[in-house]
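Lab notebook, bench 4. Still working through the backlog of constructs that have no structural model yet. Next entry is a single chain of 604 residues. Request: give me the structure tokens for it.
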Amino acid sequence: MLQSPTAVEERSGLIRWLLVWGGGGLVNYVILAYLSQQFVFGQGHTERPIVQVVAVLAAAWLSWCAACYIVFGRVRPTAGSSPSAELWPLGVVLLFAVAYRMVLIPTRPIQEADLYRYLWDGLLTVNGINPYSYTPAELAERLTQAYLEHQRGGVIPQDDVLLRFSHIVREDLAHNRQLFYYALAHHGQMPTTYPPVAQAVFALVALLCPDSWSVMERVIMLKTVLVGFDLGTLAVLLLVLRHIGWPMSWCVVYAWCPLVLKEVANSGHVESVAVFCCTLSWWLLVRQRWAWAGCTWALAVLSKVYPLALSPLLFGWLTRRGGPTALVRFFALGMIAIALSVWWVQPDTRSAATGLAIFLREWEMNDFLFEWTKTSIGWLLPEAWQNQLTTWPGWPRRRATGSPEEHMQALTLWCALAGSTAAAEIQRFGLLPVSPQFVFAYALHAVIYLFLITTLTCRAWRADSPAQLAACRSPNRRDAERPFAEHPDGIWLRATFYALAWLFLLVPTGNPWYWLWALPWMVWARQSAWYLLVGLLGQYYLYFWFVYHYPTASRGVWDTGLPGYLFFHQVWVWLEYAPFYLMLMAEYLAARLKLIRSPFGAHV
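Model written out:
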């Protein structure tokens, strides 16, 4: 098909602008790689260029936003268009996507240490030690006790686990000892929180790394594997866009996003495994491969548990498309795979859910809505009521020493209320928070999320009806809008984005890498505010700058009398999230009044 001179000129202009903004992004990531050299684990905290890193991420975000705006504006799905017309724009997008990742893989992790625990868990697994059974602190204690017993002339117990552990950290394996130190220094008292599929990936990395490799060489191997899953997600997204009939170059939303580049290629977060499995499951749902979709969904849950929150949406999607047969085939295989995997890795001392339960009890970080809800409940709930609740024998608290039977009544009650294995672990180890505000905020946000996802499912169900789809195809709609509204699968993909986006906003831990859950489906977002949120989340790293420079109240941040961690959570988080919520509200009102259309979301 011959292309008009105008079309050729527009394509040339698009490629030129992509090269400009892609090159700008490449410069930013080269600078980020240079700055990463100063982030040595446990050293030079106050000298780390954290502010500069946040500024570079902001500049990379600007390049990404410009590229998204250009691609959305100039690459439109039109009937009869030649596939070759999109070949060059897509090639430029993919070229820079790979280049960005290649630049960041060899870099030192910037303000992240989770990947050292990944490597340690994998090392335990390949040496026959269940990573759920012992924390690094418990292993260190056992080794210390054995050493003291030997010094007193006693006999070292021939414990199989202790012997295996001693083999891992023996004197001639200095790199293993250094890795153990890193794992011990970074929440070493915590049981591992990572599910079985994630552990399998960690074990694979350990098998690929000889004991003679340094910790940094193992980090590079780990990040290479995780980037492989990240690129797999990009490939699946291309298949989905092609199936829907949308331009594949719109994958720039994921491919060039600074969050995925920082959090996977630099920081090495395991989210890339779960996101890949979840995205693959959705692709199989689009292809109506119900059983395979259920298996990959189970793999996603066993990598990170967040896909469980999408169960109501899955019920609606499967029932609408495949009926009861699809529902049974998906969930039967998925739940069986989850149950067998959890049973297989179950240790004697604690369950695989123990670390996750501690995480739910302990962690509240970079949140806005959750902190606001918790504070509001504290104001509204009289102090006398709070004291009465916490003195009730059934109120969850850290368990005192004594027989487990003393706590059986409370255990039964809280398991009945929560209805999950995690609830049993929470009570068993005394891990639920004692603060009524924290518990009630959790409960309230759970109810809000359940309402939101139910609403999203009902709306998608109605929009997927034959009558609504026929209305979308009616001649009364403008020709430019029709290609975006005709495919029914896009309805469910959009609902998926909003379900995961609001899950991120409602949980008490707003780590930026958690936004990767929703990122593959962000191309279906209707509002530009979500793109703004990506840029704002980079301010999370300022938390460490405040903590390092203002560790105590006596050195309060900018004469506020607040130590660094309190200033960030009580003051700076408002600056981080408020612009997003204000813009989201403004766009919502403008859309209701039909005043404006989002430059990023106009295509959906």
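Notes after review: Residues 399-433, 474-485 have pLDDT under 50 and may be disordered. The chain is about 65% helix and 0% strand. Flag for follow-up if needed.
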